[in-house]
Amino acid sequence: MRGGFAVFTKTFCMESNNSQVQFFQHIKSILPENISFVDEIAEQLNISNDSAYRRIRGDKPISFEELKKLCVQYKISLDQLLNLQSDSFIFTGKLNNDENFKLDNWLGEVLKQFSIIASFPKKHIYFLLKDLPFNLHFQIPELTAFKCFVWQRSFSGYQVEKGVKFAFNYPGFDVHNAIGMKIVNVYNTIPTTEIWNTEGINTTLQQIDFYHEAGGIISTEQAIILFDKVLELVNHIEKEAELGFKFKIGEQPNSNSAEYRLFNNELIIGDNSLIAELGDMKMTFLNHSFMHFVGTRDESFNKALFTNFNNLMQKSTLISTSGERDRIKFFNRLRDEIHRRKAALL
Amino acid sequence: MEQHNGQVLFFQQIKSLLPPHLSVADEIAKVLDISTDSAYRRIRGEKPISFEDIQKLSAVYKVSVDQFLQIQTNGFIFTGNLGYSSTGFVERYLNDMLQQFEFMRSFDNKHIYFLPNDIPPFAYFQFPELAAFTFFFYKKSLLHFDEMNDQKFSVKNIDKEHAKLGKKVQAAFNHIPSTEIWGVDTINSMLRHISFYRDTNVFESKEDILCLYDKLEELMTHLEKQAELGLKFNYGELPDKDPAPYRMFHNDLISGDNCVLAQVGANKLTYINHNLINFMFTRNEDFNKYTFETFENAIRKSTQISITGEKARARFFNRLHKKIQAHKEVNNHY
């Protein structure tokens, strides 16, 4: 999220009467002082100094090929320069369309993004969920194993060997579990506000049912363990909501624990979008292609989403710290659903 | 001439994005405010275009210059609305959608792939009661328009012009072949909205609630018929002479995200749902290729319930009908 391609500010574009001139001024601003700007441009474009001057002054338009050379050389994103004033937003993200992309990389990317958020003194995550936050499963190794098993199959390039059944300790599990635990540790340091409702556990429960029914890829014994573990996770989330803090299963919150706020919105099923507050800046991550996220720092986009999130919070019931009656009712409904599905197996 | 090769290709890319009946030279001339002759000179690469021209063209046609120049970034340009004002919201929403469908319709090669998280509104614009309820919900609970604070919903208050426009959108959508992946939870949102409004006394009468459940059942029956025939057609009618194919898949493993992938001529567009109500799209080839692969992967894990799979289809729609019935029952005892 940080570093990488040069970002042009809105002011830059709006004040520009001649984008080409401004484009060259930007290149000049990123060159070391000891380098002659004109010589540098002339050399990069393989033209005379006079021709370079004509382009820098905007007297002669630069061609596409010249633009490309300069953008590649100085790592300039023209999209960021050209589209900031329109109804367009730049999103960034990684696609695992590389054959070598593995779940380890995806988990590593999740850890990286949460670590960046955690590195800011002032930080907060706002999650509008339709499913349980995916990272919560990492607290319980059995659920880590199961979710990794499901996610891996959603990768477009992933080849499933015929007859392979689910195992809690599959080859590579230790690596996934280790990264998962790191994600839990980092995530627990970030104050969080979540909005979801009782449908939030459906996806995980349905996935267990699906692989149990699909030719016994998951055995009945394994499915029962998984339902029990989801129950354990739900009980822990209830504890976190009751105390208003994030902490690991089996531990207690301490003076450094991050705040946890949970809202129940019975009307709306979320979309797994996440707004991260990083210092004075915000960033929105939108979920796509099941398990991927694209993020934007676009101010107007983030403002619109944040306003909506605040509106939804106002229309939701706070079930962390206060609202004991509603909290108990909410978590009992989750437990009832788990028990119902577990009973159907027996 | 070699110097402006990139420029020629840039205009070729814009041409590929235009509906086939439009003249690229006329369009460029209009955008750049130049004569058609001058536009031709630029299109042929005889006259270089300025930085400002690139800026104008990339903004109007949403062309990623980074992608075109093959500048490697992890960035994708998305375009879309951020919000709506309360004045003329429904008209604007429907007209935006109509424009998108008419644009897609104008291409010979077109297809919409959809992974719904809830029932796609363009599946039920032919049921004005359901459409009106959804717009009521958008205005009251998603857009939080002040004037909706004390409003109650009744099917008696359906706006005839909105209903007419909705049917026009539906007709346009019905001419585009589509593939949809549904789960039994796809109808949960609509059921949840109805029961929440019932519990919070937002309906004018009990009959309004019953009417919505009835219409929802009719919609499911219609979708089942479409799936059976593998064709799209308007409710209460038969498929016309040249109906668009309809493919429906059932998958309870994947939770939908309302993502839409549109094949438009030789290009693809991905629409992502955000802020619960808005959609933004990208023309980024890598992104669209990835989305398409994701759809193909999801389809492989799904059960086809259109044309074939009669048993699975009947079972799927029975489950949906049962859910609606269960809600109706609760309502009867309310």
Describe the model.
- The complex is a heterodimer of chains A (346) and B (334).
- Chain A has 13 helices and 8 strands.
- In chain A, helix 3 crosses helix 4.
- In chain A, strand 5 and strand 6 (281-288) form a beta hairpin.
- Chain A has helices at residues 10-14, 19-30, 37-45, 49-56, 64-74, 78-83, 103-118, 141-154, 173-187, 202-213, 220-243, 299-314, 324-345, and strands spanning 88-92, 123-128, 192-196, 260-264, 273-278, 281-288, 292-296, 317-318.
- By secondary structure, chain B is of the alpha+beta class.
- In chain B, helix 2 (24-32) crosses helix 3.
- The radius of gyration of chain B is 22 Å and the shape is globular.
- The chains are: A alpha/beta (346), B alpha+beta (334).
Largest interface: A-B, 75 and 72 residues
Discrete helix count of chain B? 12
Order of helices and strands of chain A: HHHHHHEHEHHEHHEEEEHEH
Main beta-sheet strand count, sense and barrel state of chain B: 8 strands, mixed
The spatial strand order of the largest sheet of chain A comes to: 7-6-5-2-3-4-8
Features:
heterodimer; A: 346 residues; 7-stranded mixed sheet; 8 strands; 12% strand; B: 334 residues; alpha+beta; globular
Task: Please write out the topology.
The complex is a heterodimer of chains A (346) and B (334).
Chain A: H1 10-14, H2 19-30, H3 37-45, H4 49-56, H5 64-74, H6 78-83, E1 88-92, H7 103-118, E2 123-128, H8 141-154, H9 173-187, E3 192-196, H10 202-213, H11 220-243, E4 260-264, E5 273-278, E6 281-288, E7 292-296, H12 299-314, E8 317-318, H13 324-345
Helix pairs in contact in A: 3-4, 7-9, 8-9, 10-11, 11-13
Chain B: H1 5-17, H2 24-32, H3 36-43, H4 51-61, H5 65-68, E1 75-80, H6 89-105, E2 110-115, H7 128-142, H8 160-173, E3 178-182, H9 188-199, H10 206-229, E4 246-250, E5 259-264, E6 267-274, E7 278-282, H11 285-300, E8 303-304, H12 310-332
Parallel strand pairs in B: 2-3, 3-4
Antiparallel strand pairs in B: 1-7, 2-5, 4-8, 5-6, 6-7
Helix pairs in contact in B: 2-3, 6-8, 10-12
